[in-house]
Amino acid sequence: MSGHRVKREFSDMGYRMTRQRAAILEVLSGTPGHLTADQVYQRVRRKCPGTNLTTVYRNLGLMTQEGLIGKVNFGDDRSRFESNRGHHHHLVCLKCGRVLEISECPVHLEERLLKAVGFNLIRHQFEAFGYCEDCGGGSAG
Amino acid sequence: MSGHRVKREFSDMGYRMTRQRAAILEVLSGTPGHLTADQVYQRVRRKCPGTNLTTVYRNLGLMTQEGLIGKVNFGDDRSRFESNRGHHHHLVCLKCGRVLEISECPVHLEERLLKAVGFNLIRHQFEAFGYCEDCGGGSAG
DNA sequence: ATAGGTGCAAAACCTTTGCATCCGT
DNA sequence: ACGGATGCAAAGGTTTTGCACCTAT
Description:
Chain A is of the alpha+beta class. Chain A contains five helices and six strands, in the order ααβααββββαβ.
């Protein structure tokens, strides 16, 4: 069972550790992927039957807000959630939807640019779209 | 009236140039911003009363697919559309929602990285979030 | 004339909200 | 016990779909 750390963190913030919350944190900690709210819900119900989708939404929102988990958007109309495992970015396959993760950050916003427009940077997101190895990757089209 | 070029392009692709489509392309060409489908709809109706929201959605989808316009997502639950005016990125204010555009691309995905994971890159999106000048920009928190 | 496009209504889908009940502390 | 958290139902908002009518070519 994973997720000890986040559970502890969440408790320490003053939130109650319910069965549902424990299940949500376990699901995310134990999954390398990027789950939609509904996917989290399906998996949570295997650990904690009867859990309501509303509860999942409420907690995903809360945990995202508290910075315990990450929320990404791959251009479709729903959010995806992932455990917080450091700054990283995504390569999304336009055909099969597979998501490759890259830990190297290819984004370098220069200080002087931000200063020039008076912008105080908090976070950034970067997603690349294309075709994975199985769907026509490499340098071929 | 703007949008001559895109209208011509769209026609040349074999699509019929209806009043509604002309209005949509004019609205986007004449706007520097990033409009939600509903915002496009409101403006289109001023040029072409009676136009239906469904029509706007259908055409925004079609035009995006054909690469005539761009579609972005700023993390909230709706898409935004913009005329295609070259590669650029966005700085989104977390407080007032203002969007600054930067034409300089701070993303440099290395060829060897892509080759290593067998990914054929088609496009990428990058959005930065923080606070604009009026909402606490600069280097201060 | 005819296929493509539109309008309308309805639905699909994701997400949020209100409120009574429940349970972690 | 108490206040926070959950479940249920219902609604909200965006986007899609089906189908009859219209219109650009």
